[in-house]
Amino acid sequence: METSDTGQQNLLLVRATVNPTDAETGQLFLLKGDATGENLNLEISTGAQLPAAWHYDDQPFQLKILHFNDLHGQVARIGRNENTPVFSKMVSRIQYTRSTYQGNPFAGVLVLSGGDDSIGTPFDLLIGKTPENYQVHAGYRLYSKAGVAASVLGNHEFDLGLDLLAHAIRKDAAFPILSANIKPNRQLENACDPAAIFYLKGIRIGVIGLTTPAATLRCRQGSEFEIVDPIPVVKRLLPIVRSLSDIVIILSHLGLSLSSSSASMAFAGDVELAQSLPLGSVDLIIGSHTHDLINKSGLDSKNVVNGIPITQAGCNGSYLGEVDIVLRDAPTVANACLNETAELPLDISFDENYVQPLLEQLRPKFEKRLGRVMESREIMVDASYNVALGESALHNFVADGLVASCRAHELAVDFGMVDASVINSGIQPGKDFTYGDWQSVMPYSDTLILFTLTAKELCEFIQDNARRVDILEEPHQERGFQYFSKEIRYCIQSSPTRSRIKAVDIKVKGIPVEQDTDRIYRVACISFFRALSRNWEQQNMPLLVFDPKQAQGVDTGLFVRDLMSEHIQHYDGISSAGGALQDGRLIVF
Predict the structure, then answer these.
(1) Distance separating alpha carbons of residues 168 and 73, to the nearest angstrom
(2) What residues does 182 pair with on adjacent strands?
C-alpha cells in the first residue's frame, strides 16, 4: 500500500493465479492495499488490464453461486467407531453443477466460503500451535482441491494467531482470502486482500470480503490487529469495484443483523449494511457468522433489504447454499435456496483421495487417551447438558479445572466461573476418555480471561446470575447462567416470578461476602461469556450485563480446551478429585 502526495491511498489491481482446480474461472485479479483509508485511488499494474464490460446481446448469462459458511473445520464428523462425511457430499453437488454448466458459454459457477473455516473440531490438532509444528489446515486444503474460488476472514480465523494464520493461508489456500475492513498488518501481508475480481466466460465478478469488528483485538503470540466499521469502508471501495465488475458480491462475516443473538457483533450486520448502501450498488450479500438458515426453500422477500438479497447457509456444513444470478442489462438474483448436505450423494473419489488421508493423519491425536470417566450418575450429561436448573458436576469440574490450571501456570486467582453453554455434548460414565471426546465437549478455542471484582460487584453479579437460572415451568433459553468453582457457595431462592428470585448466603472461601467489603477478587473465566444470552437480556432489562473483557480484563492467550486436557490427564480422567461432583456449592430452593 502506498500513499500519494495528495493524501490518496492507492489500491493496486494485480493479476493473480486462479485456483487451478477451478477450471471454470479463467482469470483472477486482486485489489491490494489499505481499503480502510478515506481517499482511495485505483492503480493498475502491468499486465492487469481487465477485459471490457460484458455486453448483453439477446442471450442472458446465468451465474450459479454455491456457498457455505462457518464450517469450523467440520469437513467430516468424527466418531469413535465411524466417520460421517460432510464436505465430500458438498463436493458432489459442486462437481455436478460444474459438469452441467461445462461448455455453456452463457453459464458459469463460482464457489465461495463465508469464513470461520477452522476452530471447533479435532482437525484443529493438525494445524498445530506454531508454524514450526504446523501440519495442515484441513479446510483450506480441501477447499483448494474442490475448486473454491475465495473465502473471507472469519472471527475464529484469528484464534490461530496471525503468524500461524498467515502460514496456513500460504501453505494450503490456493484461493484468495479476503477482508476489506482489516487494517494492513505485517504478518498478513500477501495473505489477505480487500477484494477479488473473477473473469469467468466473459463476465467480471467483483467480490468484497468483510470481517466482523467483534473479532477479538488480541490473539496468540501478542499479535495485534484492527478491524474497523465496515460501512464506510464499503461505501468508499464500491465505486472502484463496481467500475471493474459486471456483478458485485459482498462476502460477509458480519452476521445477519445487530438484533441477532447467536454471535457477538459490532457496528453493523448484513441488514444494516444493506440499508446503508445506495440502491443497486451491490447485487448480493452472502452472509455468515450468526449461523442463520436464510432462503432455505427459495428467495424470501423479507431477505431482500434495500433491493439487495441476503443469504446464509447455517453452519458446520449442514447446508450448501445456491444462488442464481441472471445478467442481462443488469444483474438480477432469480433464486436462492439451501441444499441439505446429508441428502446429497457422496463424492467417493474426493473422499478417498483427500478426506480419508487427513482422517488417518488425525486418528492418533484424536484417540490419545486422557484418562477415564468415573462411574457416577452425577456426571451423566446428555441432551440437557446446558440446562441451568441447579448444581452440575461437569460444570463444577470445568470451573475447578480453570482455577487449578491458573495455579499451575502461576496465575493468582480467587475463584473461577464458566458459562452454562460452554459444555457442548455429553460424556459416558465408566469409559476411557480421549482428546477427541473432550474436543466434542469443548470444541472451540476459547481463551482464559482474568479480571477483578470488588465484593460489592460480586454480590450484584451473583444476584444477577440467580435471576438467570432456569425455572421448571419455563422452556430452557440461553440466559448466560454462570457456574462457579468450589470457592464460591450460595443458595438461590427460586420463584415463578423471575424478578423475585434471590441469591442468599453468599460465601467466598467460607467467609460471608458482606464481612469482607473491602476485598477485591481476582476471577478466571472463559472468553466465550454470555455470548448466546443477548436476545434474552434485551427482553429482560434491567440486568447487570457484565463484560469481563473490559479494560480491567486480561486475555492470557491460553486455550481453555488445552488447559482442561492437562487437568484431565493430571487426575487420570474426569473424577471427583478433579472437581466432578456436586458438593452443595449451589443450592436452589
Answers:
(1) 13
(2) 227
* Residue 431 in grid coordinates: 469409559
Residue type, 134: Y
Residue whose entry in the numeric block shows the C-alpha cell 479435532: 122
Q: What is the DSSP letter of 295?
A: S
Contact 225, 158 (CB under 8 A): yes
Query: How far, in Å, CA of 345 to CA of 368, rounded?
Result: 32
Residue with the three cell numbers 487426575 = 571
Q: Determine the Cα–Cα distance for residues 380 and 385; give it in Å rounded to an integer.
A: 9
Give the helix, strand, coil percentages of the chain, each rounded to 5.
30, 30, 45
Radius of gyration, CA atoms only, the chain: 25
Burial environment of residue 32 by CB neighbours within 10 A (0 to 12, 13 to 18, 19 or more): buried
- Helix 138-146 vs helix 87-101: crossing angle, to nearest 10: 20
All residues at 6 or more sequence positions from 467 whose CB lies less than 8 Å from its CB, including other chains? 498, 499, 501, 543
DSSP code per residue over 54-65: P---S--EEEEE
467, 469, 475, 477 alpha-carbon torsion, rounded to 10°:
80
Give 41: exposed, middle or buried? Use CB within 10 Å, 0-12, 13-18, 19+. middle
Sign of the C-alpha dihedral, residues 156, 157, 160, 161? negative
pLDDT of 24 above 80: no
Are 180 and 212 spatial neighbours (Cβ–Cβ below 8 Å)?
no
φ/ψ (deg, to 5) at 265: -140, 165
Whether residue 383 is predicted with pLDDT greater than 50 in this model: the reply is no
First-to-final CA distance of the chain: 63
DSSP 269: -
Rounded to the nearest integer, the mean pLDDT of the chain is 89
What secondary structure letter does DSSP report for 351?
A: I
Q: Which helix (H) or strand (E) holds 27?
A: strand 27-32
The SS3 assignment for 476 reads coil
Q: Write the single-letter amino acid at 251.
A: L
Report pLDDT for 295.
96
522-568 residue pLDDT tens: 999 998 888 778 778 877 766 666 667 554 677 777 888 889 989 99
* Pair 147, 21: CB distance under 8 Å: yes
Residue 438: pLDDT band with limits 50, 70, 90: confident
- Give every CB contact of residue 301 below 8 A, 6+ residues apart in sequence: none
How far is residue 256's CA from residue 270's CA, in Å, rounded to a whole number?
A: 5
What are the tens digits of pLDDT across the range 211-265? 999 865 444 444 567 899 999 999 999 999 999 999 999 999 999 999 886 777 8
How far, in whole angstroms, is CA 36 from its chain's centroid?
Answer: 23
Domains, the chain, in order of start with CATH, read 59-362 (3.60.21.10), 368-588 (3.90.780.10)
pLDDT at residue 263 in the model: 75
Distance CA 476, CA 464 (A): 17
Among candidate residues 67, 35, 58, 589, the one with its CA nearest the CA of residue 311: 67
